[in-house]
Write a structure and sequence with these properties.
Structural class: mainly alpha
Keywords: Cell inner membrane, Cell membrane, Iron, Membrane, Metal-binding, Monooxygenase, Oxidoreductase, Transmembrane, Transmembrane helix
Strand order of the largest sheet: 1-2
Distance between the termini: 38 Å
Low-confidence stretches: none
Order of helices and strands: EHHHEHHHHHHHEEHHHHH
Organism: Paracoccus alcaliphilus
Number of helices: 15
Family: Belongs to the fatty acid desaturase type 1 family. AlkB subfamily.
Helix content: 55-70%
Strand content: under 5%
Mean pLDDT: 95
Protein name: Alkane 1-monooxygenase
InterPro entries: AlkB/XylM, FA_desaturase_dom
Radius of gyration: 21 Å
Length: about 375
Amino acid sequence: MSTTRPSNLPAAAPFWMSVVMLPLVALAAMRGGWWWTLLPVYAWYLTTAMDGVLGLNEDNPDPEIATEQLFWHRAVTIVWFPLQFAAIFGSIWYVQHLGHLSGWEKIGLFFGIGVLSGTIGMVYAHELLHQKTALERWMGDLLLASVLYSHFRTEHLLVHHSWVATPRDAVSARYNEGFYRFFWRVLRDSPASAWRAETRMLARARRKPWDRRNPFWRYGALQLAMLALALALGGWPGLLLFLWQAFIAIWQLELTNYVEHYGLSRKHLGEGRYEHIMPRHSWNASHTVSNWLLINLQRHSDHHYKPDRRFPLLQTYGTDEAPQLPYGYPAMTFVAMVPPWWRRRMNPRVRAWRRQFYPEVEDWKPYNRGELPMPRNAV
């Protein structure tokens, strides 16, 4: 795989393809009918079709490029919150005050907006919450609050990245676990898991769970502000539409989480000790166009290997180092919604991964059932 060196604006331009979805929201809000379908068609189906045409991009950028050279790459993530905010709350005000759409047309429109806030907003929030600047972290927090999923920041940074592919991580999907069972388990377990992680950190500093430094105060305040604004702009129907788009966004995020680590386990070394995270513990995908739309999220093996690496610099891996998805995330999440289809496509790949990387492991049943010991020192 060759090494390339991004040259700022020309290299960043393809990663701005998400912006095309904003006029599609406006068109659907004004015209009603089936115009809302343009949003999932663009984000899921057109992207998958273009992946089929342009294929894989296996070039790796120079990982030593300075942050200052990535201005236009970073810009699209930083400006996304005000754009998404306008799409969600502008649409609530517009459709409720003009009254030109039927109830079903509004449901379709806010499904499409949920595609926007889930496919794009959640992915950008993920990138932003990994950064060190206050501006980027605040933009990430605001994006998460706009879909009522603020605890994801804590759960992702303090739990997922530490304990991915072990029983401690709720969003590491087990072998043979269908998406719907996984989805319920994540919705049930993740908020409490995030709370425990934060309160344990506070306890180490000899602070109480209700200390003002607990970010759950911020999470709650931001989410209540979003709910209040939706209610003020659109009344109870506006609030329900806001909740609907938030659910669609969360559903898409957890579909992605399901795909990213399905069936992959870090080897248990005994007494609650697990091997270090490596590229082999995440599914990798080098599909060109879906990586443009999802700002290289599909180079997920490298993201877990080097979590502080910005998205333009993420590396891709060959089959000797990381397992490969047959398609990009838009197509794979569609397959995941049909569990028998998913198992037919992915279970043989998981078994091949086990033979390739862990031929010495004879009994995978404890891994499959999540019955191995919790990692030592896990929050």
